[in-house]
Design brief:
The structure holds 2 protein chains of 2 kinds.
Chain A lengths: L4 E3 L2 E4 L5 E6 L6 E7 L6 E7 L2 E5 L6 E5 L5 E5 L8 E8 L10 E2 L3 E5 L1
Parallel strand pairs in A: 2-11
Antiparallel strand pairs in A: 1-3, 3-8, 4-5, 4-9, 5-6, 7-8, 9-10, 9-11
Chain B lengths: L3 E2 L4 E5 L4 E7 L6 E7 L6 E7 L4 E4 L2 E6 L4 E6 L8 E8 L8 E2 L3 E6 L1
Parallel strand pairs in B: 2-11
Antiparallel strand pairs in B: 1-3, 3-8, 4-5, 4-9, 6-7, 7-8, 9-10, 9-11
Classes of the chains: A mainly beta, B mainly beta.
Chain lengths: ~120, ~110
């Protein structure tokens, strides 16, 4: 059983650019959630995808968008990057659906630096 | 608006002693609580969870206690080992909606050999 993987590990971008981060969920999991962890803070929920549809969204602007593919892998896209977008981006997968609770398992994260 | 709070940024404990990490929450809709452990340059690793229908859950050296009336939970590690040194995050979720996790800011535990 493979765990959650994310790519790339590190990324450096400049303000105004766009970035795509990728996540492969744990085998058998159908739900992917994305979190942003700023330095010294806990992870903050960006959005969740369940069976290829957005299943909830945190307090992030529309320039944060995502996709989930039929194999349940996922992408996080951020447009018009700002300096404050510099953070560790975490992907978590779970076997759950709407209204269900299950433990979320995290990948190692992608460290994004915006200059 | 921090709905999950960990008021102790750090904790140091001697090896073999008990470590107690605390967490408070404000949202009465939360009904599932988790503890994650995080090493530098890694994602959070799931440690233990508890549903709101219980007040205690135990897994080896780790025990989580939930006091719903006080909106407080704690993680006990006994005996503490140097390998337990990490940042511990408390997280909570509610049954409705996306079941997204709300995290505290973490407590850095250092176990001194």
């Amino acid at each position: 059983e493979t765990g959650v993987t994310q790519s790339p590990t590190h990324l450096i971008k400049t303000r105004g650019q766009q970035v795509t981060l990728r996540c492969s969920s744990q085998s058998g999991h159908n739900t992917v959630s994305w979190y942003q962890q700023a330095l010294g803070q806990g992870p903050q929920f960006i959005f969740q995808y369940y069976r290829e549809e957005e299943n909830g969204r945190g307090n992030f602007p529309p320039r944060f968008s995502g996709l989930q593919f039929p194999n349940y892998s996922s992408e996080l896209n951020v447009n018009a990057l700002e300096l404050d977008d510099s953070a560790l981006y975490l992907c978590a997968s779970s076997l759950a659906g709407q209204g269900a609770i299950d433990t979320q398992y995290f990948g190692p994260g992608t460290r994004l630096t915006v200059l | 608006d921090q709905q999950v709070k960990q008021n102790s940024p750090s904790l140091s404990v001697q090896e073999g002693r008990i470590s107690i990490l605390n967490c408070d929450y404000t949202n009465s809709m939360f009904d599932y609580f988790l503890w994650y452990k995080k090493y530098p340059a890694e994602g959070p690793t799931f440690l233990i969870s508890i549903s709101s229908i219980k007040d205690k859950n135990e897994d080896g050296r780790f025990t989580v206690f939930l006091n719903k009336s006080a909106k407080h939970l704690s993680l006990h590690i006994v005996p503490s080992q140097p390998g337990d040194s990490a940042v511990y995050f408390c997280a909570a979720s509610a049954k409705s909606g996306a079941n997204n996790l709300f995290f505290g800011t973490g407590t850095r535990l250092t176990v001194i050999p």
